[in-house]
């Protein structure tokens, strides 16, 4: 297993950078003294309400569908999740490993199936989230409450600090990747095909499922569940759980989120060591995304996995952890 072991000395600089980011509320505009506008985007409110109502209706259709359709919907859920976790998050946002063209094309297609903004926008906003976590420059600032960090942030216009700070980030690496540029250019078309048409067509064509059942289970229900699982990383994993690596930051270790988000709930670890491709010190345990990346490395489609060293992890636990692990 090829891994880059980060040096212990570099941890001090990283910790200082983290503290700078946390204190950048002043740099971001003294967030606690500023008005926090809620300019509601009613179109998003309506669309999300309709989507979740349709997902509730889809639950009623489960007994009426064929078992193969249930399995297909679950497979689509896993592919959808990988498009976010292994793709937009660990590969493009954090550059925690490198991927060859075939794997990047697959992850971009899977990301379009996820329909959570294109890779460029998702990664840019996620980098802002890390650099200015829990300030007004954080797109889904958890200090504004569970509902806001879970879904409410999509119901309102972005806080001006999010846009302002986002423009200051270096995202040239994203624009230098032709896969990212291509997906962004044809994003709407790719979403239509990957998120809705393909999941609906396969069960109907290959095993005679009704288009109605296929659409509501493999497209609508699968999409709604994948959205909420991702959002739980922004909300629950910033509010509930322990902080064995850094008690001074909000993100927590949350096992329920880890299970649902195929390995993304080790959130205190991830915000402490954001460069680590596994987002956890436990390797493959409860981490299907790490299993996927390791398998891609075995196939020769990925390489250069970055890891925090055991010495770095233990030193950080002793210095800033909450002693819970």
UniProtKB/TrEMBL annotation:
A GO term, aspect molecular function: iron ion binding
Gene Ontology CC: one annotated term: endoplasmic reticulum membrane
TM annotation in the entry: 40-60, 72-92, 191-208, 214-233
Location of the Fatty acid desaturase domain: 71-274
Reported cofactor(s): Fe(2+)
Keywords per UniProt: Fatty acid biosynthesis, Fatty acid metabolism, Iron, Lipid biosynthesis, Lipid metabolism, Membrane, Metal-binding, Oxidoreductase, Transmembrane, Transmembrane helix
Zinc-finger in keyword set: no
Entry annotated with the keyword Lipid metabolism: yes
Membrane disposition: Multi-pass membrane protein
Location of the protein in the cell: Membrane
Taxonomy, superkingdom: Eukaryota
Stored Pfam families: FA_desaturase (PF00487)
GO biological process: unsaturated fatty acid biosynthetic process
Cross-referenced CDD domains: Delta9-FADS-like (cd03505)
Domain commentary: The histidine box domains are involved in binding the catalytic metal ions.
Membership in a protein family: Belongs to the fatty acid desaturase type 1 family.
This protein's name: Fatty acid desaturase domain-containing protein
